[in-house]
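During the reporting period the student researcher (J.K.) took over the structure-prediction task from the postdoctoral fellow and processed the backlog of single-chain submissions. One of the processed entries is reproduced below for the supervisory committee.
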Amino acid sequence: MNTKKVLTSLIILSLTVSYIILPIDTSAKTIKQFEDEVAKYTAELQAKKDKVAKNDAEVEEIKKKIADIQSQITKTEQEVESLQQEIDKSNEEIKEKSEESKKIMEYYQISNGENTYLEYAFGATNITDMIYRMSIVEQLTEYNDKIMKELDALIKKNELKQKELAKKKTELNKLQKDLETEKERINADSASLKAAMPSLEEQIKSAKQQIKDLQRMGCGTNESVDSCTARYYASLIPPSNSGGSIPDVGAGSSCADGRCRPMGYGYVTQGYKGTAHMGIDLSSSNKTIPIYPIMAGQVSAKYYDVYGALVIKIRHYVGGRIIYSTYAHLSSWSVNVGQNVTVNTQIGNMGNTGWSTGPHLHLEVTTCDWKSAGGGCTWATYQRSTVNPANYVSFPSSWNTR
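J.K. obtained the following structure tokens:
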């Protein structure tokens, strides 16, 4: 038996043993589950779009109501102005009538003394003259009373009208304020809905891509991703380390167990914290130090993320399973997707691209990947699939050798 056949037999045996020791997770997703996710996310996305459309319609109605209220406020202000003109005119009349009443009273008081009415009435020479004089006094008194009543009515009318208009304007202003608040609430709700849409669209896109990749790999509709990917990638392991196969972890390695730190010397700036920080951050005194894979593998993706960080992902075959290592914030790359790499293959240089506060390398290790073809998970699942890179490679606080 030649070496090639022996190596193939050993790998098949190791795969068999690994599945006995580590049984396949029956909860792993299938193509059918990804299709269900697409349907679910599509329905959620459409529901959000419908709600945004409804909100937009409500906002338009509110805008019309606000415009109508503003028109009413303008009309009320015009009424107030018109009323003020009436009040000014009435005040003039009040002033004139007051002066007139005052003059009548002063005339009789000055001309005939304080008891002018009595003196005038009782100064009659006969009964006929007295009746006449009493009639005159009565008419003057009635006229004066009439003037005073008119004055009082004008004052009350003006005060009432002013209160009514002031109340109406206050109510309109409050209604306008309430409508403005409601409009702001609806707009905020729409903004929140719109903010969630890109995530749903990305989930739909990712799930569709997973379906496409799994179908390309020959996965059955109800076959678990773990089972399918293990079978598929097992076919890429030797007989050869060239072409499309994934090289053995120890290929070309001078490090312990074929696992090396990604840079020749450096230090840890932030540790692994699960979903709070899905990898570890590493830096070095050389801010453009070359970056290498932590294990031999195959480049599965390279891209700029949404923040502009240059990212490279590498697929590894470890202990009978596929894992992924991710290298972010690079300043440059020097490998291509599908290229086999060893721990001595430079993949790029440390940098400060994307959302970064300084030159460093962000390193992640995951059991699946959302960006690589056949990675087997969505972004949401990917976040839960991270493991501490220190589980695979030793990271002291600082080092000067890989």
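The committee noted the following: The domain at 46-207 is CATH 1.10.287 (Helix Hairpins).
J.K. will present the remaining backlog at the next meeting.
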